[in-house]
Amino acid sequence: MSAAPKFKNNVKISERHGAGEWKLEKLALLALMPLGLWVLSTGFSLAGADYGTIVAWFGNTLNAGLLAVTAAVFFLFAGLAWKVIIEDYIPAASRSPLILVSNLVFLVLAAASVFFIVRLALGSAPLPAGV
Question: Is the per-residue pLDDT at 15 higher than 70?
């Protein structure tokens, strides 16, 4: 026999973990706002710059670090957003595999982004020649 649903201020209290994910999504968005403005201003300032200038920009530890954090937070936010979309619009039988694939895709994208940012920051080419 299941317990009756609990209410607070005439609103059903969720028995799931959605509130924590909602807070994490809002914190990620809050972090993305200044980071996004920084990326936008950097893009405008580096527009038309030569290769050496771009490599020097990536060589700056602060720039590379902020860009890596921006990529990681962006893919965290995107992964949480897609999870919500899948939960809201996909039938229950298909949800778990799609959420797993979505999480895996965003994890790979985040890891690849950070990997290539670190390679550029260390002065390496993004990919070896011929690849």
Answer: no
